[in-house]
Design a protein that fits this description.
Layout lengths: L2 H9 L10 H18 L3 H23 L14 E6 L4 H16 L3 E9 L9 H12 L1 H4 L2 E6 L6 H15 L3 E7 L3 H15 L4 E7 L13 H18 L1
Parallel strand pairs: 1-2, 1-4, 2-3, 4-5
Helix pairs in contact: 7-8, 8-9
């Protein structure tokens, strides 16, 4: 018998006491409760997770569809009075001219108008040089339905070109025209022409056909440096034209 038990017998009553392990159990239970509370995900954690998922979806969507931002999805009429080829680089103009001549060949356009500087860098007129080239490449019949709209050699913007060509369009009496430009310029060109041309003749209907360009492809635009640079440059011009 232990000393505690002997004391209890001598005093004539027993002292009720909690088992020695009860304190340990309470402490352990309190600790487990605290651990469970800390492990439970808070509302902030859920919001952070949703924000991360939303941001990831936005990035994926932007990379997939962002390349089509500068590209106009225009509904070109089945038939137009003239397909107007706008100026650009040599590769771009070749692609645009080919697309315009295809419209002419299948009867979707009555005429083709090609925007050219009045003179070359060597003070030579462009139309006398360009027409034999068109006759050789597309045939005499199709080349005979091509007109040249002259602009000043020093034009530096789509707005200046629109202002210069509006006179040519009015002189020919065209009321329904399709502008042929590079795909990545199509949205900006449409915006500028619809602002500029009605000032001269509000009865002219303008549509835009974006021609595939070797300098830009909307799909995978961020994977090649040339496409990315083109997208950045054109997006800045589009934003400026929107002001």
């Amino acid at each position: 018998m232990t000393t505690v038990h002997a004391a209890r017998d001598l005093l004539g009553f027993s002292v009720l006491s909690a088992p020695e392990t009860s304190g340990r159990r309470c402490t352990l239970g309190y600790t487990l409760i605290n651990i469970d509370k800390e492990d439970e995900p808070s509302e902030k954690s859920y919001w952070k997770l949703w924000l991360v998922l939303l941001l990831a979806l936005l990035i994926v969507g932007f990379l997939h569809w962002g390349g089509y931002l500068p590209v106009a999805v225009d509904s070109v009429p089945e038939h137009v009075d003239a397909a107007v080829v706008l100026q650009g680089s040599i590769a771009s103009e070749n692609a645009r001219t080919a697309a315009a001549m295809a419209l002419l060949q299948r009867g979707s356009a009555n005429r083709v108008a090609i925007s050219v500087p009045r003179e070359s860098y060597w003070d030579q007129e462009i139309p006398p040089i360009a027409r034999p080239y068109l006759e050789k490449k597309y045939g005499t019949d199709l080349a005979g339905r091509v007109d040249f709209c002259n602009t000043e050699p020093d034009i530096t913007s789509a707005q200046q070109e629109a202002q210069a060509l509006s006179t040519c369009i009015q002189e020919h009496g065209w009321k329904n025209i399709a502008l042929l430009t590079s795909n990545y310029q199509s949205r900006r060109v449409r915006m500028i022409w619809r602002k500029t041309l009605p000032k001269g003749d509000p009865s002219v209907y303008v549509s835009v056909e974006g021609v595939p360009d070797p300098n830009y492809q909307p799909h995978g635009w961020w994977q090649q440096r040339l496409y990315l640079e083109t997208w950045l440059s054109e997006s800045a011009k589009l934003a400026w034209a929107s002001l």
